[in-house]
Amino acid sequence: MNALVHIPWEKVAKAPGEVIVAGRAKTLDTLLQKLERTPEIGFANVRDVAGVRVVGDFTLAEQDVVVGVIKRVFQCPDAQIIDRRAQPEAGYRAVHVVLPLCGVHVEVQVRTRLQHHWAELFERLADQWGRQIRYGGAPDPGDSSELAETRKEFVHDLQQASVEVIAPMEETRSSIDLLRRAVTGDVQSDDPMLERIARTAPDMTITSEELPDLPPELAHTGNLTAVLDWEMAKAQSLANQLGESLLQFSALLAEDEETQGPQAYDEGVTQP
User: Fold this and answer.
1) What is the number of other CB atoms lying within 10 angstroms of the CB of residue 102?
2) DSSP state at residue 222
3) pLDDT for 90-106, tens place per residue?
4) DSSP letter (8 states) at residue 223
5) What is the pTM assigned to this prediction?
6) 182-208, pLDDT tens digit by residue?
7) Are 70 and 110 a contacting pair, CB within 8 Å?
8) Who's near 199: CB < 8 A, 6+ residues apart?
9) Closest Cα partner for 170 from 245, 60, 268, 259?
10) Please, which residues bridge with residue 205 across strands?
11) How far apart are CA 270 and CA 109, in angstroms?
12) Which of 28, 98, 194, 228 has a CA between 20 and 30 Å from the CA of residue 262?
């Protein structure tokens, strides 16, 4: 983990804010549960006996850069990349780098800030309603059929939020950032579209007809770089609001768990 801690991530990804690198080891109970759930894999093939998590306010493109850096740092040709953005598991999205080191598999989870907040919330919900929801299973039914159905709907909605709200939001933010970097000459890319934008950007303007909600001061000049900065700020603000909502929800679950036990949140969910 020390190798990852000392990487100057702010230069690698140019992500605003702190990049958090934290180690974790699988508990014996969790390891046994995994082996019971999938006995065919065997201990030697468990991918995450030990792990490290790298979390930052990355765009999707920056997340890919971080993954590439991790592969180079460990110089591991057998590293396995698992992209849960392309194939979410029960709503979970992230990129995992599995490294065979010292006789065990070490998993490095690379998450954007929103991916991490969602995963932490879903993990806390799994602690209360059953770990099986992390693998697509139904939550524990609770004390009634009505409660069981409510839990199912809530878990489904949270999974859909990851795929249908957070994922498009991250894709939009990443696209705007790539365009902005192309315009300012701050990106090296083989993408013909980005190269064309970089060449023509000095002569490009945006009008209020193209973006009706463009502020008057920007509509007056139509400067492409300024417009992209404005769009990026909007996308960042929406991401911040969503991240804060996920954090507040997670804190609410934690508070209910501490004060009233794992069934406490059910009352809030079932209220009209």
Assistant:
1) 7
2) -
3) 999 999 999 887 777 78
4) B
5) 0.78
6) 777 665 556 565 555 555 555 555 554
7) yes
8) none
9) 60
10) 223
11) 34
12) 28
